[in-house]
Automatic annotation (TrEMBL):
UniProt-recorded name of the protein: Protein NRT1/ PTR FAMILY 5.5-like
Family as reported in the entry's similarity comment: Belongs to the major facilitator superfamily. Phosphate:H(+) symporter (TC 2.A.1.9) family.
Key words, A-Z: Membrane, Transmembrane, Transmembrane helix
TM spans (from-to): 12-31, 62-81, 110-132, 153-177, 233-257, 269-286, 306-327, 391-415, 435-452
Gene3D superfamilies listed in its UniProt record: MFS general substrate transporter like domains (1.20.1250.20)
């Protein structure tokens, strides 16, 4: 499993700057590029739930690993070929500069085909790996420590691959790692020793059965207590998962536009663009390591007030957006002062060090989302239900990421009212991201109030005798 995990780490790094590739090489606007990648990423998360259901009935864990590794290797290979690389230039005689003039229609078709294959590969890999992680492994602390270690390795791989600047080389390296994973999985002598047991079936059928039989009379309902409890846990999780999906939406928007802010800022010896990106990951895993050590998310004993966690995450989101708005206002002031906004490729005389506070706050905000997830993830439930809940949460993440595209579109349309210019232009130098960040703050406040009063209504109306949504009990391991 180690080689598959390492291949996934390299692939994540290669895909990290896909939006920058589309804006710099393809010449797409920031809104168009971010919308394309966010929809693709959201579909990847949602498709993992579909593959998890398929694993219950027709595809085994081992077959799913082979399918995922093969699709990832082919997808990253096609992605490398779709770039104007030196090898493609020697074969076809085309130019090899990284701009849209050197990308043929065939390469554009290969690019979209590569995205589809990578989406299938990453979804299938998530379905197989998440399921295997649950077999015989239900220790919360151990799972969290493995998460931090894998994240530390993720940052280390990124720091190692910083020297690989050509896009074709970065994508080719990721394809090479996945090809190694395929060869090891297909090798008979190695795969014969690999023991992969199929997991317990997910409670999809039992949950659907509960909802169908609930339409009948109480005497005709022939369901077990376990099936009813699983259905109740899933409904509670979906109701609370709405606010989690909203926070994912905020995190996606901030991550996308923070990187675009840093693209043309003045680099220095210690604060290169890649250093800022790695520092964001370092802050994230540093906060997570502290949380694991001191158990700050469970300091109130065996019960956690979910509404307090949501309020804390909302405050962090507001702080992050406020810092970003102030920095963006300063950046736009520097652009107007020196008149470098309309000069392509011109460096803005402002240090990238200015972006470190908002990246650090973004890492802290993302860290505080994990307790909200674990409150429901480690709630009293059977192991198959816990496994299935993980994929439902991934589906909610996909919904949140895809919803960010809709939010940007609606805010842009609203900003055009009255004949005013759209806040989102072709590049960030002519956009008004500072106003957009303030709009996100207003949206956070409104959504929190709606969710808070809605949860109180559900506590009183829908669950008068059950555990309220605002107070969840963490199962002791």
């Amino acid at each position: 499993m180690t080689v598959i995990h390492n291949a996934s780490i390299v692939q994540k790094y290669a895909l990290m700057f896909m939006i920058i590739y589309l804006t710099d090489v393809w010449g797409l606007g920031i809104t168009h590029a971010a919308g394309l990648i966010n929809i693709w990423f959201g579909m990847t998360k949602i498709l993992a739930l579909v593959f998890r259901v398929l694993m219950d009935y027709c595809i085994g864990s081992y077959s799913m690993l082979v399918i995922s590794s093969t699709a990832n290797a082919l997808g990253m290979g096609l992605l490398s070929i779709s770039t104007p690389s030196r090898l493609y230039s020697l074969i076809t005689g085309s130019c090899r500069e990284y701009n849209m003039k050197c990308i043929s229609e065939t390469q554009q078709s290969l690019f979209y085909l590569a995205l589809v294959l990578i989406m299938i590969g990453r979804s299938a890999c998530a379905a197989a790996m998440e399921t295997l992680n649950f077999i015989g492994n239900a220790d919360e602390k151990e799972l969290r420590q493995q998460f931090v270690k894998s994240g530390s390795g993720y940052a280390a791989v990124q720091a190692t691959l910083l020297v690989l600047t050509p896009w074709s080389v970065i994508f080719a390296v990721a394809s090479f790692y996945n090809s190694i994973a395929v060869s090891l999985l297909m090798e008979k002598s190695w795969s014969h020793k690999l023991y992969i047991s199929n997991p317990e079936r997910s409670p999809v059928k039992s949950v659907v059965r509960v909802f169908v039989t609930s339409k009948k009379r109480p005497r005709e309902m022939k369901i077990s207590d376990k099936e009813f409890e699983d259905a109740q846990v899933l409904v509670r999780m979906l109701l609370v998962g709405v606010i989690y999906a909203f926070f994912v939406l905020i995190s996606t928007i901030c991550t996308t536009y923070f990187y675009q802010q840093a693209k043309r800022l003045k680099p220095s010896i210690f604060f290169r663009f890649e250093f800022i990106e790695v520092s964001y990951l370092a802050w994230y895993f540093f906060y997570e390591e502290i949380r694991i050590k001191f158990k700050s998310d469970n300091r109130y004993g065996n019960k956690v007030d979910l509404r307090a966690l949501v309020m804390g995450a909302t405050i962090n989101a507001i702080t992050c957006c406020a810092i970003a708005a102030v920095v963006e206002r300063t950046r736009l002031g520097v652009i107007r002062k020196y008149g470098v906004g309309d000069i392509p490729g011109e460096i803005i005389p402002m240090s990238r060090f200015w972006l470190l506070p908002q990246f650090g706050m973004l890492g802290y905000f993302n860290t505080n989302l994990d307790p909200i997830r674990r409150v429901l993830f480690f709630e009293d439930a059977s192991l198959p239900m816990q496994n299935f809940k993980e994929f439902v949460f991934n589906g909610l993440i996909g919904v949140g990421v895809m919803s960010s595209v809709l939010v940007v579109y609606l805010v842009g349309k609203i900003s055009e009212m009255g004949g005013r210019p759209n806040w989102f232009q072709h590049d960030t130098e002519n956009s008004r991201l500072d106003l957009f960040y303030w709009a996100l703050i207003v949206l956070c406040i409104l959504f929190f109030n709606i969710w808070f009063h809605g949860s109180n209504y559900l506590n009183k109306r829908l669950y008068p005798r059950s555990r309220p949504l605002g107070e969840q009990k963490i199962r002791r391991r």
